[in-house]
Amino acid sequence: MIIRAIRKEDDTHIATIIRRTLEEFHCNKQGTVYYDKNIRHISEFMNPPGSIYYVVEEDGQVVGGGGVYPTEGLPDDTVELVKLYLLPHTRGKGYGEQLIRECIKFAKQAGYSKVYLESMDELNGAVSLYKKLGFDYLTSPLGKSGHVYCKIWMSKDI
User: Fold this and answer.
1) pLDDT tens-digit profile of 15-65?
2) Residues near 120 by beta carbon (within 8 Å), at least 6 away in sequence
3) Domain boundaries, the chain
4) What CDD domains does UniProt report for this protein, alphabetically (predicted)?
5) What are phi and psi of 51, to 5 degrees?
6) How many H-runs (helices) and E-runs (strands) does the chain carry?
7) Strand (E) positions, 7-150?
8) Which residues neighbour 35 within 8 Å (Cβ) at sequence distance 6 or greater?
């Protein structure tokens, strides 16, 4: 398994992984990333300063990804952990934890002191991982992601 920065040729694979995962958990609803137009061109979207998107490769195949992005409306010291999804056969192998740690490492190097995320009850495996890694629940959302279906908000000091 390797983690590397996204390339343009990864866009279709990542968009498919995101959509299939949300369908798997019955979260393909308005107010989620499922309907974000930017996932079709995620390598371009995840391009501003202070952001990065990583893909996970297993045996030369893209099997997931995740990144950090300075979502509009977040405090200047905070970046959002975004679009973190893995194919089913890769879950439970530690890839998600390694990916999150790589995102946090980038966020620190970029000068952020907090990482924020949004999730859903249906993604309870991911939420358990976030808790294990020290993310704490918030009572309301930060920033303006537009993902109104997400009712779990968490953050971590880094």
Assistant:
1) 999 999 988 888 787 777 767 788 889 999 998 999 999 999 999 999 999
2) 25, 27, 32, 149, 150, 151, 152
3) 2-157
4) NAT_SF
5) -130, 160
6) 4, 7
7) 52-58, 61-69, 78-86, 114-119, 136-137
8) none
